[in-house]
Amino acid sequence: MISFRFIISIIIITFGALVAAGTLELVLIPNHMIDGGINGISIILNTLFGGSLGLFVLVLNIPFLIVGYRILGKKFVFKTGYGMVLFSVLLEVFGNFDPLIDDTLLATVYGGVAMGVGVGLIIKEGGCLDGTETIGILLSRNNSLSVGQVVFILNIFIYGSAIFVFGADRALYSLLTYFITYKVIDIVSDGFDSAKAVFIITDDASYIADNVLKRLGRTVTAFDGRGYISKQEKTILYTVITRFEISVLRDILDEAPVSSFVTVMDVSEIIGNHIKKFPAKNQK
After folding, report:
1. CA torsion, points 197, 200, 205, 209, in degrees to nearest 10?
2. Based on the number of CB atoms within 10 Å of its own CB, is 114 exposed (0-12), middle (13-18) or buried (19 or more)?
3. How far is it between the farthest Cα atoms of the chain?
4. Nearest residue to 16 via CA among 79, 71, 61
5. Burial of 83 from C-beta contacts in 10 A (0-12 / 13-18 / 19+)
6. Can you give the residue ranges of the DUF2179 domain (predicted)?
7. Per-residue pLDDT tens for 57-98?
8. Number of Cβ atoms within 10 Å of the Cβ of 171
9. Res. 143 pLDDT band, cuts 50 70 90
10. What is the pairing mode between strands 261-266 and 195-202?
């Protein structure tokens, strides 16, 4: 049964895709600027070979949807797939409208802000518009880089390629837009890698701990506890995840055989590697 919260989430993702697609077609592209990730690659290919930008975006993202299904589960793929399809369709729709801004500096600033709002809302609801985030999750499982750092490195190569297509000045303006977008995403969704400490009080620790390790690659620390009133024995699980992964954790808790009491807190600093994921070869 579809919950009210899920419906609200889809509405927010719809609005986020609308804002992102409108910003790209009406502000950034008319000023010969690109977005990062798969969207940026799609714009470059569309500029070089013509055709449908929305189709490029959709086709290039399909492999990452498949990978995302294996890693993050059905809800992530549904929300992400819905957002990507809607985003691709809206790109074609907005492509028929006149540009909103023809000033490069204004396009850089306000385009970055608007793009950050649109993408940030979608990330906040557990989806994404770009396959590079899935790449970031995959690569971060096997090295010391965070998801945001992996995405940033990939985007450096993409913006570097844009120099040969749009010129150095437009590539640098695009890079500046990306920095603005990323900071706004940080505000809207607490960022890709904003750490969250999670305490889970449960009667079924093994199911939750196994799925957190399997689907998120995170270690879990278990404590023995007892209800003060009920006197019943409880297990308290502690782990640290990113904001991007909270929606997946919520799915794990919803699918658990018994209900749990959960608190999520912001983490200002992490010392050590608890936030990092175990390599897939250790997940046995």
Report:
1. -30
2. buried
3. 69
4. 79
5. buried
6. 218-272
7. 999 988 888 877 776 677 778 888 898 999 999 999 998 888
8. 21
9. low
10. antiparallel
- The predicted model scores a pTM of 0.68
Residue that the structure tokens 């949807």 belong to: 65
Burial class (CB in 10 A: 0-12, 13-18, 19+), 88: buried
Res. 279: pLDDT tops 50: no
* Distant-in-sequence, close-in-space partners of 101: CB < 8 Å, separation ≥ 6: 26, 27, 30, 31, 107, 110, 111
9-42 per-position pLDDT tens digit: 899 999 999 999 999 999 999 998 888 888 889 9
pLDDT, position 284: 36
Structure token pair of residue 22: 């409108």
Amino acid code (one letter) for 64: F
Dihedral sign from CA coordinates of 42, 44, 47, 48: negative
